[in-house]
């Protein structure tokens, strides 16, 4: 009872401190509104504005039609270049794709000679290269089919392939990037918020002062967890309902309350991590370095940026223990695929267990980190 | 009035101040001050904290930028930049705070060396001077000790040596003896006297809060509230204040206090009713590593007693108090409170103690009233009792007018009263107060003591207080004299004085200190000051040398200093080197855009030969791994939903029959679209496999190729035939990490000096901003190059990504790039004020552009809007192309000349911007 009261009061104090910290509030406000909106609408992981050039030695009706079919937003307007310009253009990264139509291309097509179209792909732009090559191949065959259809020749396939994308039929990338940005921001802000606050209070001596009062480290930490957690959960709920669902028009398949429950568990983990880093770092610069060392990989490797399955097995199995991976996984399951508790309970459990372990470790280090902090 | 006019009037003057006002935001520090300071004398600036003494000295030294009015020092106008830089070699300035201009990680010798280099002294001269100075100050035996491990008094002596290394004509000392033990204080002043004997004509300006020190100065300027109250020699000041002592005279001179004498504080005797011990300590020892902070300290404090700990900063007072509050576990020894052994984990015993720490520990974001209420609640006071208690305390401590203010807005004296109110809100039996009065003016200090006396005498509270003020020590019932972690003596103040046969407590303390350290004043004077030998010619020649516009030696001074500090901070060094390697490993393997190991399952509604053939064609792909087959549509949905499979393939009933009949059956493929990039890639794979299947079928049935496709599309994956992302990612990660780590490291380098105070050395020595910045940058460029080498080796040997292009080109690019990224961090460091802001700013300034706009994921050419602009100008985009170009594309310098041209200007531009943004004076 006494513990609960202390936790409540200290938490309210945390909320007051947060209210006075205008810069931090602006940062939080920005991260959960404009930040997400900008990330979702500005940057896309699918094919956009790919720089393409064409060496057209045929200059026929067909090659012009293919050129015209390479349209924005997937492609930039194709640039006509000459053969010797291919290498420097690709070396400097000016063009990601260069098509080469040989002389007599159209005639050969009509004659059924199967002429060769060379598609040069800058394979160092890995994300674009594969998808782009596929797009280009499809566009070329479509245009040729259409061209031959106009001339009265029909070709038919013996077997149709019908591809359907579940959960995101048009593969709108903002559906994906908005939620992933939300997750990244939750991790980043929670860790910074609790960790930096811990260090600041230690430097100001207020933590030390708490330790001579009848308050235990457990109470102090729980107060920080619930107060900062509350703020972030509210911000997440706002971001989900207003920014992601209403403004970005991302349909949310599953239950938002279930997602918020998961987020709360994740916040417990993230605040515990923040405090733990705070007890390890002896100064703010050290905290900054530690933060980058820990949070950057957590964000980049959790499956929110690049596919998890492609990582080496060792790293993959380690990352599966990291709660940010679990968070990404259950966020996708709940929000896009409409999964229920029966599907995501294991992820919830993992996040909670890792959170508890870090919390216990932080509590263990708490006292000694304060008295030797100076 | 010009300088010459003033001199005509009679005495020569060293500085002339006319109509100077200065403000920090809305707070006025100096209000229209005009003043002539006589040359060749010791001039003292007296007055409590926050009256503008430091500001005035800062303006006189040139450390602070003049806002309005004019200041002439040594015949020069301080607002004239060229004058000022020619004056700097003649002035020495020691800022307030113990060792503020020193570098704590550097040894005594290294600190002195650093300052010698700043004044352009060659090695032989420097070494000779260092030996002279350290021999005459008694530091010679400690040349190899880090400044951070010196006692307060020794730090100040070292600070003085650093100030004197260039033979200044004007020495400016801002509270040089605050917090220093009385013996060191006395030694400090006799040292100054001796130096003045050898350097006749040197003027000394001193700010001090100790009135007894000021008695011996030649000339005094009494200040209050940003204005000059009076000036003259000590006798004149005392006369105009109608008082015997300077302290009283000062109080009398305060406006609104006309002639009404300030009542001296008296402590009523303690009633004799002794009812046992409040605190007992036996042989307390506290060690931090191999440093012993507290060395076998024992004492007993009776109930209701005011017990004082008297000693200099860093002598172990705070550590002892922390052990009594349970904050620190003693390394050895035991302590009891009210007969119970002190245990930091017992919450109940904490209710009997009130603690006030040196930093006051108030919640700056809560109002005065909220602070009081929160603490009452945390001590579990019944809710009904809290409002009356808060009201009672506000009244008694005079806080009524401040209830809704934030603590940071309060004057220091009020903040101190609030801290005390908070410490006693739960009516503790014992109060532990750690230097509660430092930095507070004499009147407020007396007010505070009245409250303490009331608590002790009328409420029976035991008070354990630490202080470095002798007159406060004299007010305690009993005191303990502390030095270097040891108790020298413990008794009532009068007894201590009597025992030694001294007249004041200060004298008694000095005697005890001399006995303890074996260091007598006469011994310190033994070595003759060799400085006297020096002629004026040498000094002048040296001053001229110090004025050159660029000096490699000054630049080197900062490079060496920065490098040494970096090498002695294991955490920063470890993160810089090991951290980079770990991140390289993790990102190099982890960030991969290859889509592989995709799980899929088949719902085969036909189960014919043809359908099984189709399924087998999928299973043969290296991208896919098959999961158990699906039974029905429901299972298909569930397994997609749970993320168990990324792809479901459904074959219709009669698939085989329809295929043979030619009635075109449909294969339905459902792809998990949660991650669009992955879904898109999967779709491409499936398309390809589907085509292959058709072609194989066709060939089998008809024995020839179909003319389905009229063209042969031949993709050429250039530079990376296997199309593995590692060949692109590893060189990209190298570019990414060479941005983050060096930038974060340099981001704190300048702002750290701002926070620690050593930035003053930039303001008051001849170093130029360019020398300062580049000097700091060089060691980090070195670290960056080591990082680069390590990562390049890892790329080749760990990731098997060979350097196909020109190695020298890559190296050249790396050097230019590291120069740029370190300049990037410096840039953020120059205009931010705190290390946190610098780190946050650098993180924001690097993270987003680096990950999203520099070509790591998407080629820069495909960005649009702001992203495209950032991508085109951001240094990382260009180095990324150089790195990928030399590693994977097999390019050389000529092929990449465009990228080099784009990368090259960024570094010099950032450095130039930093030079412009970094003020050479404190604003």
Automatic annotation (TrEMBL), chain A:
Subcellular location: Cell membrane
Main location: membrane
A Pfam match: ABC2_membrane_3
PROSITE patterns (UniProt xref): ABC_TM2
Gene3D superfamilies in UniProt: abc type-2 transporter like domain (3.40.1710.10)
Keywords: Cell membrane, Membrane, Transmembrane, Transmembrane helix, Transport
Family annotation (InterPro entries): ABC-2_transporter_component, ABC2_TM, ABC2_TM_bact-type
Domain named ABC transmembrane type-2: residues: 133-369
Topology of this chain in the membrane: Multi-pass membrane protein
Transmembrane segments: 21-40, 182-199, 220-244, 256-280, 287-304, 343-364
Domain of life of the native organism: Bacteria
Record's keyword annotation contains tRNA processing: no
Family: Belongs to the ABC-2 integral membrane protein family.
Name used for this protein in its record: ABC transporter permease
Organism of provenance: Roseibium polysiphoniae
